[in-house]
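I am writing to request your help with a piece of structural work I have in hand. The matter concerns a single protein, recorded as an amino acid sequence and a row of backbone structure tokens. Could you please explain, in whatever detail you think fit, how the structure tokens follow from the sequence? Thank you for your consideration; the sequence and its tokens are set out here:
>
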Amino acid sequence: MRKVLTVLLLSTLAIGTASAETLHFGTTTANPPFVTANGKNQPVGFDIDLAHALCQQMQAQCQFTAQRFDTLIPALRFKKFDAVIAGMEVIPMREKQVAFSRPYRQALSGVVIVNKDVAHTFADLKAKKVGVVKGTLHQRYLRDKQKAVQAVPYDDVASAPPR
């Protein structure tokens, strides 16, 4: 599988019009430990800390709006916020819609299986259900490359039913 990079997604047009006092970020809480929700349902994690460091350098306040991952690009394009920080991989389809910064970390993917005897390869997952976050490359990969695996999309990791 091709190397996947995680990036800070910035809209250059939106950044140019952002208030000097507040930079409004769109994010998701579906990507722990990079972004998750704390006990007060506020986004926390590595990406949020990075956004705060950027705001500090720009002498601005950070504001965050958490929503489903698959709604972030449309909301950014409609200027609901100034930038997105959500571990979003750069792919041509997304690059046609928004501008990206340089990657700040590499994304690695894996599969979590409760019963270790169920599967060790994708072939073992044939006709099995695999939960994915809506709008991610994981959903697209299973749909396009692993057609025998049934991808079940969820709004976020917490929405998936416990097994």
About this structure: The two ends are 28 Å apart (CA to CA). The domain at 5-106 is CATH 3.40.190.10 (D-Maltodextrin-Binding Protein; domain 2).
